[in-house]
Amino acid sequence: MSAIALTRRRGRRHSIRRPRTGFLLVLPAALVAVGLFVVPLVLAARMSVSDWPLLGEPSFTGLENYRAIAGNDLVGQALGFTAKYAAVILVVLLAVALGLAMLVRRPRRGVGLLRTAFFLPAAVGLTSAALLFYELYFAGLSPVDDALTGLGLIDRPIDWLGQPGTAFLSVVIMMTWRFAGFYMLILLAGLQSIPDDVYEAARLDGANRWQTLRHVTLPLLRPSLALCTILIITGALLAFEQFYVLTNGGPDNSTVTLVIVIVREAFSFLDLGSAAAISMVVLGGLIVLNVVQLLALRRER
Amino acid sequence: MARVQRRARPARLAAAVAATALLLAACGSDDEPTSTGGQTDDTADAGGDTGATLTMWARSVTAPQTEALVEAYNATHENQIELTVVPFDSYLQKVAAAAGGRELPDLLAANVVEAPNYAQLGLWQDIGDRIDSLDHADALAPSHIDAGTVDDKRYAVPHVVDTSALYVNTKILEAAGVDPADPAPTLRALADNIATIQAANPDVQGLYVAGSCGGCLVFTIWPSIWASGGEVLGEDGTESLLDQPEALEVFEAYNQLFADGAIPEAARNEAGPTQNEPFANGQAAFSLLGSKALATIPESDALSIGVVPIPGVDGGRSSFVGGDVLGISSSSEQADAAWDFVEWTLSDEAQLEVMAKNKNLTVRTDLASNQYSEQDPRLVLLNELVGEGRTPYAGNFFQTFNDPNGPGLPLMRAGLFGDDPAAEVPELNGAVNDSLQRN
Hints:
The complex is a heterodimer. By secondary structure, chain A is mostly helical. Chain A has helices spanning 2-48, 64-71, 73-103, 111-119, 126-137, 143-150, 164-192, 196-204, 209-220, 222-237, 241-246, 258-267, 272-300; strands at 50-51, 59-60. Chain A has a two-stranded antiparallel sheet. Helix content of chain B is 44%, strand content 15%. Chain B folds into 2 domains: 2-21 and 47-162 and 322-388, D-Maltodextrin-Binding Protein, domain 2 (3-Layer(aba) Sandwich), CATH 3.40.190; 163-321 and 394-437, Periplasmic binding protein-like II (D-Maltodextrin-Binding Protein, domain 2, 3-Layer(aba) Sandwich). Chain B has helices at 2-28, 63-76, 91-100, 115-121, 128-132, 142-147, 170-175, 187-200, 214-227, 245-259, 277-280, 292-296, 335-345, 348-355, 377-388, 397-402, 408-417, 421-437, and strands at residues 53-59, 80-86, 107-111, 149-150, 153-154, 157-169, 205-208, 284-290, 305-308, 310-312, 315-318, 321-328.
């Protein structure tokens, strides 16, 4: 009796203490989140409705900065380009990453080496990778051109970063090299969670490779693919370093992304209010896109 | 940065104390011959030379000149300048970030075309009275002083003056039988001479320009527009006149050079960093460069440098007076000490023994002809161009023309390399006007 009471009391005391312990345990992370996310977000929101000069006092201007976005030609241009980039890089990255994941899926001789090799570029910083490719593409000195010429594939050097089409292609190639291994890893984990008996059943039903891929692998891989899609789209809409280093938005402003516009507003025009307003719009767009993608994912489940 | 700041703070305090002490001493010295403490410096104008540690930022493109000035000043003065050289393409970002945190250096140099913007933003102190106290105030490069003037207040003085000109590899011209003395009285004559040169030696590049660098193109192509009698900007810098007939004619002349192969394909995407190379290597017969190139490009077996003015379509000559201006930042608490350096950089000693001696232009028109420049007719010409040339004035100049994502570069590239400049340039001019008119 007394033993039971004791246990109960101890249990109750435990349950009283638990919320506080929980709170304390969460506190550091919460402080970081508030300090690094909530505070800057509120500050940016305030900036976006103000005329915010570098020196002197900011003044409230309402929705003026948001209205100005509509009249900013570069924003429209950048929005179109960023969307195009997101669509292209999504398809290319998913296809290449899935191909690589299928290639190194089964433990075989040498597979460990391949997996490491495919993943290794992901360990290189994005800016470093961009600088590396900048050298590879550099007009007149490009080792890529030398190799292609040597193989007899091209007659004269390609001015990779000098024309809109090849400049865009150059960035897509660099980003694929840099990120395919990373998404391969996510898809590999997804592939390995598909039980073998499903494949056995498919084989017994006489499905060929293509049918197996379409009707077994891809549907069961959907959660991993959805995760990759969200990450790739988010990354593409916030694309900056790869374009800043490789093309600097050029040639002729053909590769200006939304973030490059934000940087131009903030650090060239020194118009922090306008930069904050565009940032808030981009944030809103990202939230909507992610909610839509997550809802779609949940419904399919 | 942070390290320098931390080190500078005690020094700044010490300097403030020293300055106060000096001031008190000076006030009390009317009736009684008090000693000014440990002052051993007996020069009369040592008012600002109080052993202060001053911070200074300058753009990488003026590093050789600024470093030489700072070195000479530090060697002969109590004050010490701590110079930070910042890559030119990230200078505005760094200044903007520092201004937001009120962490600007005491001495802030700037590209002369950005001077109106800096002044409007309040990054500099008004130094009009200090400038007036100079004996040679009227001789300071007038276009630079104008650039640093907003609402009749003067915020900056010329620091490094750089005039654009047409550089000629006289060896290539002589080999092709073209007279190197006056190879480009007009753009048409230049085109003819390049045709002659390339007929004699097809491997030679004609005229090299930095075709993907907005700052370089305004510096080198706009003089042709001025020389042709045109204007590039309206008076208050809010309207682009690049779509006017004179400008279009100039664009078409260069466009024809590009179409004929007289401007090499590689020039189209030259973003600036390697713009000296083809000329310095002896591959290009002509190049549009600034006066600073004369001191930095060495002559060789393949290169003898001649310098001629940039012509207009049918004659005339002009130049873009670029370079950098220097001001005292609005957050500096050591304005007197900072002015001591500024004043010294404008002195005969600094202008002649540091700048002119090293083949640099002087920022004072009264020193344009000096014992060093007179030894070299090319320097005489480049110095003359300081007085003849122009510095366009616009509040949003950098944002419009220098920023690689601004609307000015696509317009100029359409003019120089596009298929139909007469149609494309006016079409793109609207975006340039929008950018110039933005607050």
